[in-house]
Design brief:
The chain has 550 residues and is an alpha/beta fold. The chain folds into four domains: 33 residues, no CATH class; 194 residues, inorganic pyrophosphatase (n-terminal core) (Alpha-Beta Complex), CATH 3.90.1640.30; 111 residues, Diaminopimelate Epimerase, Chain A, domain 1 (Roll), CATH 3.10.310.30; 105 residues, OB fold (Dihydrolipoamide Acetyltransferase, E2P), CATH 2.40.50.460. It is 41% helix and 20% strand. It is built from 19 helices and 16 strands. A five-stranded parallel beta sheet has the order 2-1-3-4-5, with helices on both faces. A five-stranded mixed beta sheet has the order 6-7-8-10-9. It has a five-stranded mixed beta barrel with strand order 12-13-14-16-15. Strand 3, helix 7 and strand 4 form a beta-alpha-beta unit. Helix 9 packs across helix 10. It is globular and about 75 Å long. The two termini are 21 Å apart.
Length: 550
């Protein structure tokens, strides 16, 4: 720790956090704080990258039509746009299609392959889907279309036949990184083609979109993902893409973009059209050259997101009424709900109940579900144990989707309630633990500390925002915001700082003026209307004594 303080000029708290996260040498810390693009792995680390690149270069040379089939979330949309921009830059005849969530459903279907065929596709690139879509792959072969799969989802028992499958989760993928977003894999394919093309482009300008999809898809922000997120976020505020610029304006973010900005402001607006609109509007926004058209589409995303919030809030209210019994391992709720918001609802239920949750939307066409898990518990593995009740399922350990017959919803609820065992017990125990990275030293300027801690970002899975133990805070003032959040001004030593407790307005009854309390909090920078002030985001509060931490 002392070596980091002396070698890099870090204050003790920052050095302690780095050491606790396994970054204990000056060299490793320097690489972490200022990751280099040279740390990106070669695209050709993928065993099947060579045939993928060769086929695309041949298609470009022959003037054959390439079609990209994306997905309707941020990862799939940005992955689609990355390939379109990269391949168009070197003269490819390229088009795209993205499925409608309700009309088409998730994944590469025969229907989608047929649509690509009508567009004249000789090569079809499936982005953020395809790894388990064997029927669609067979249809592509029947139509004489060469299929390239660019994905990151867990493979099933059968692997589709394709010209190439680029998926780091395949056992024989050859790639040194396992947990990538699909847009990251798409970027690798784009770089592989650009490297081999005579123009020799690098494609680093695409990193803004790659970072957007990577952060939004909540993959671990470690290793190569950190390099991508770091550099993409560093330059995102300077983007010249009219669509991204307009979307940032409507999202209320400016020059310095953080992973929080993406997670809570930018990504929801893109996902909204995939949930209750059509994702092609987001694709067209990113592809628009005309700033006026880009702004029109960004406004459409913004308004669609506002509509999504109203639908979502109603579904959450109804879903929370289906409170599970205490002994249930995995929670299942169901109703006649808009299937576009059930993923968000599932994530909210996990927060409320501390258990994996499956939210099922039932309508006249059948039932589809979205599952979210807690860290350390593989929800796909749980679904695999009850696969006899499901028509289809797939995803990755923390998030999955299912298709199910309506009459099997109740049997699924009962079966998943008994699924979990020691793996879930351990994961729930770990999730319930409050882990602190360090104790807040009030002798240090909180503004200075907040800015130094910000250097440890981008934050996300694998690199969470540091949590600090704050002792003997004193309430100076308080107010409730939007009937949900509690805003405080607290004294800590000789300093005063704003504090916020999200969705915990009931704390106002205990945290009255003059009350002293201990807390676990995240020290962030609140940027608002040209100001940048430190702020404590309260995670755990105890007015009766010390907070119990792991």
């Amino acid at each position: 720790m002392e070596a980091l303080q002396e070698g890099l000029g870090l204050i003790p708290v920052t050095a302690q956090i780095l050491v606790c996260r396994g970054i204990d040498s000056v060299c490793a810390a320097q690489s972490f704080l200022d990751p280099s693009l040279d740390e990106l792995h070669s695209p050709f680390s993928f065993v099947q990258m060579e045939p993928a690149v060769e086929r695309l270069l041949a298609a470009i040379e022959r003037g054959e039509r390439i079609v990209v089939h994306g997905d309707y979330d941020v990862d799939g949309i940005t992955g689609t746009v990355v390939l379109l921009l990269a391949l168009r830059a070197i003269g490819a005849d390229i088009d795209y299609l993205v499925p409608h969530r309700v009309d088409d459903g998730y994944g590469l279907k025969s229907r989608g392959v047929n649509r690509a065929h009508k567009k004249g596709a000789k090569v079809l690139i499936a982005v953020d889907c395809g790894t388990t879509d064997c029927v669609a792959a067979a249809r592509a072969r029947e139509l004489g279309i060469d299929l390239i799969i660019v994905d990151h989802h867990e493979p099933g028992d059968e692997i589709p036949q394709a010209t190439a499958i680029l998926n780091p989760r395949l056992p024989d993928a050859g790639y040194p990184e396992h947990d990538m977003a699909a847009v990251g894999v798409a970027f690798k394919l784009a770089r592989g083609v650009l490297e081999r093309h005579p123009r020799g482009l690098r494609g680093t300008t695409l990193l803004k979109l790659v970072a957007l999809g990577t952060v939004a898809d909540m993959v671990p922000l470690t290793g190569e993902n950190r390099v991508i997120a770091y550099h993409g976020l560093q330059t995102m505020g300077e983007t010249v893409n009219p669509g991204l610029r307009a979307l940032m304006d409507f999202s209320g973010v400016r020059r310095r973009i953080t992973s929080t900005d993406i997670g809570f402001r930018i990504a929801p607006r893109i996902n909204a059209v995939g949930r209750i609109g059509h994702p092609k509007d987001a694709v067209e926004m990113f592809l628009a050259d005309d700033p006026g058209e880009a702004r029109r589409l960004a406004e459409l995303l913004h308004k669609t997101n506002a509509k999504r919030k109203k639908i979502q809030d109603k579904v959450i209210e109804e879903a929370l009424k289906q409170k599970p019994r205490d002994t249930a391992s995995v929670v299942v709720v169901a109703g006649e709900w808009n299937r576009g918001v059930i993923g968000i609802v599932a994530a909210r239920l996990v927060q409320e109940w501390g258990k994996p949750a499956v939210v099922i939307a039932i309508d006249e066409t059948g039932a589809v579900g979205s599952a979210r898990s807690i860290p350390g518990f593989d929800i796909v593995g749980a679904l695999r144990k009850v696969s006899n009740l499901l028509e289809e399922f797939g995803g990755h350990p923390q998030a999955a989707g299912v298709t199910i017959r309506s009459e099997n919803v109740e049997p699924l609820r009962e079966a998943l309630a008994l699924t979990g065992g020691k793996e879930l017990e351990l994961a729930m125990q770990q999730s319930a633990e409050i882990i602190c990275d360090a104790e807040l030293d009030f002798e240090t300027s909180l503004s200075y500390l907040a800015r130094e801690l910000e250097r440890l970002g981008p934050f996300g899975i694998g690199n969470p925002q540091p949590r600090l133990l704050c002792r003997d805070l004193r309430v100076e003032s308080q107010r409730v915001i939007k009937d949900q959040h509690l805003k405080l001004r607290v004294a800590c030593g000789e300093q005063s700082v704003d504090a916020i407790a999200w969705r915990r307005s009931k704390l106002a009854e205990d945290l009255t003026e003059g009350v002293r309390f201990d807390a676990v909090a995240e020290l962030t920078i609140n940027r608002w209307r040209g100001r940048s002030d430190p702020q404590l985001e309260l995670i755990e509060v105890n007015v009766d004594g010390p907070v119990t931490i792991a």
